[in-house]
Amino acid sequence: MDQEEQARRNAGPQHAGSQHLMDSAVVPEAVDEAKDKDFRVSPRIEDWVGVIVMVLLVAITFINVIVRYFTDESFAWTEEFSVFLMIVLALVAGSAAVARDRNIRIEFFFERGSEARQRRLAILSALGVAVMFLALAVLGARVTWDEYTFGETSPGIGVPSWWYSIWLPVFSMAIVLRALGLMARNVRALKALSQQRADRDAGGRAP
């Protein structure tokens, strides 16, 4: 019994190394190990937009609380603008998550099999994200055009509704581009794995 316990302890560092290798295989190396500067368009852009949106949300909420405390009234535009900013924040955060391959997924299925299989699943996942947000961008553009054509205004402060809705197709297209970039990185990684396997097979057949 003591020998088995000692064996498990000795295997600890090796197990940790294996887990690191598994994690590196699950998450594409280009987005797991590389820094943001290695992206052609750094996802820090989305980070900064998210920070600005959060600052605006906090400032609007704080101002509204102060005004309501002293006057028992609130600015009519705060709720409408806050909802708009929260939607922007969700889309920007989604774009950054797609760029860094940090979207939620079922790891039970994703971690099974070889690294090549995981890369193929990652390609399929990125393609699905791109298709979904491309459809959202098209539908959002149609909604924006209808609101512009019919001159619809927002219910809170009466500004043109398309001022808000136009950002849905814009950020959706940003997510589409991030998903295509992620898919391209996984395709390159899959080709590199295939080349490595071919080189090993050629080396094994050499006399």
UniProtKB/TrEMBL annotation:
One of its GO terms (molecular function) is transmembrane transporter activity. Residues 57-188 form the Tripartite ATP-independent periplasmic transporters DctQ component domain. This is TRAP transporter small permease protein. The chain crosses the membrane at residues 48-69, 81-100, 121-141, 161-181. One of its GO terms (cellular component) is plasma membrane. Residues 1-20 are annotated as: Disordered. Keywords: Cell inner membrane, Cell membrane, Membrane, Transmembrane, Transmembrane helix, Transport. Its main location: membrane. It is found in: Cell inner membrane. Belongs to the TRAP transporter small permease family. It is a multi-pass membrane protein. InterPro entries: DctQ, TRAP_DctQ. The complex comprises the extracytoplasmic solute receptor protein and the two transmembrane proteins. It holds the Pfam family DctQ. It comes from the Bacteria. GO terms for biological process: C4-dicarboxylate transport. Part of the tripartite ATP-independent periplasmic (TRAP) transport system.
